[in-house]
Write a structure and sequence with these properties.
With about 170 residues, the protein is an alpha+beta fold. Helix content is about 25%, strand content about 15%. It contains six helices and six strands. Strands 2-3-4-5 form a four-stranded antiparallel sheet, with no helix packed on it. The protein has a two-stranded parallel sheet with strand order 1-6. The chain is globular and about 50 Å long.
Length: about 170
């Protein structure tokens, strides 16, 4: 039973051969430490840790066109940037850290009206030119297909647009 079949079995309330374990990824510093502790250079942490693989189809589910990524302010320890998603956040320049979110692109109805055209599911460039060919082969993938471009689910998409407060 491959990972995709195991996932489908779980969703049908059956008992798969193996349970699915999902991770978004690993901090680069963590992988370096694991390698210093004996993880071979060519090892894939997903395989060595038994993490379920998933595949994102080549669909651009983000804001289109993206906002201009730009540095708004910078010092020795951090920089404040506007991301392609329109989020303004402080990023650490000292190792991997979660960003400090300062402002999200939607804080009121007018903001939503202004960004709405960037959410068009039929926007040119969302799908690759060979999408029909790719989609016809999707059932052949042994891994779980993660539609939507990210693992954040419905809540994560709204959180990126509006933040957690307000």
């Amino acid at each position: 039973m491959n990972q995709r079949e195991a996932f489908r079995a779980m969703m049908d309330f059956e008992r798969p051969d193996d349970l699915c374990q999902f991770e978004w990824g690993y901090w680069w510093e963590t992988v370096v430490r694991w390698r210093n502790e004996g993880l071979p250079e060519n090892a894939n942490p997903w395989d060595d840790c038994g993490i379920t693989h998933y595949f994102r189809p080549p669909i651009n589910c983000g804001i289109m066109p993206a906002f201009e990524w730009k540095v708004l302010e910078e010092n020795e320890e951090s920089r404040i940037v506007q991301t392609g998603s329109g989020i303004i956040c402080r990023e650490s320049k000292i190792g991997s850290r979660l960003p400090q979110f300062i402002k999200h692109p939607v804080s009121n109805r007018d903001d939503f009206e202004a960004i709405k055209e960037r959410l068009d599911p039929k926007a040119s460039g969302r799908y690759p030119d060979n999408w029909d060919e790719w989609a016809s082969k999707a059932d052949e993938f042994p891994h779980i297909l993660c539609l939507g471009g990210a693992e954040n689910g419905f809540f994560g998409w709204l959180r990126a647009l509006m933040g957690l407060e307000g």
